[in-house]
Amino acid sequence: CSDPVKGSHYREVCLTNLRNRAGRHRSIASNAPIEKIFDDSAKKAQAVTNGELGEYGADLFDIDVTLDRYGMVNEILRVLGRDKDFTEEQIRDAMQKVADIEKDIKPVANGPKPRMFQLQLSEESTKNLRDAVGFETWDYMSENGIKPNDRFHVTLLYNALPNNPDDATAELERQLYPLADQGFSLEVSSVVCSGARVCAMPVKFQEHIPCRNEHPHITLGVGPGATPRESNDMLSGADPEKHPRSQIHEWTLERLELDGVVRVIN
Prior knowledge:
The protein has 266 residues and is of the alpha+beta class. It folds into two domains: 4-104, no CATH class; 116-264, 2',3'-cyclic nucleotide 3'-phosphodiesterase fold. Helices cover 35% and strands 23% of the residues. It is built from nine helices and seven strands. It has helices spanning 8-19, 34-44, 50-55, 69-79, 88-103, 123-133, 135-143, 167-176, 230-236; strands at 115-121, 147-148, 153-159, 183-194, 198-205, 217-222, 248-265. Strands 2-6-5-4-7-1-3 form a seven-stranded antiparallel β-sheet, with helices on both faces.
């Protein structure tokens, strides 16, 4: 950028280009403080000296970075003395090929953290749940290497792309945000386990509360090589290879009422 500190317009163009990398920059994460990094770097930038240019046989040219891509390519070709070597069709075709490559580049740096909305059980409800599950289930989990969770919750929404959610996710967030820190009641009456992979308790809300999961549940624990989200697949039957019917075990409990508070996890 030409004079990125003083030229606010040029600065914004550069920042926009950085943001549009969407996490594909080799060293800057998409959730990094781009403005601070950019401004700090710009303040430390030093002009290239004639001696440095001469060392590499280079020349210095000004190119307007506010031009569109086609305009910038033409400018670069002009200063290189190659502007007569390519037709507009060839240039635009090459630009499209570059755009296709950029589209498929996988992010190298870490992207933004997911945002979750959970109904977290109170300490009293956590204790009551542990007591209600019973030794038979806990023994089963221990024998199969399923590690019990320390705390329990119902996931209401998992937003993997908080900076760019789809319409349905954005609408659900709008419904859930006003409920943060509010209490809700729910009940459980069974435990379901799948082999040595996962154990969960289906839940029934006693009041209306928005929830993305078709089968709301509390994950009791997860085994080696499994993930908490497998509770969804187990309860819905969506992945019979990982969760065949022959490996499904269920224990019926006395109906237990629990309470929890909606929390937003960023």
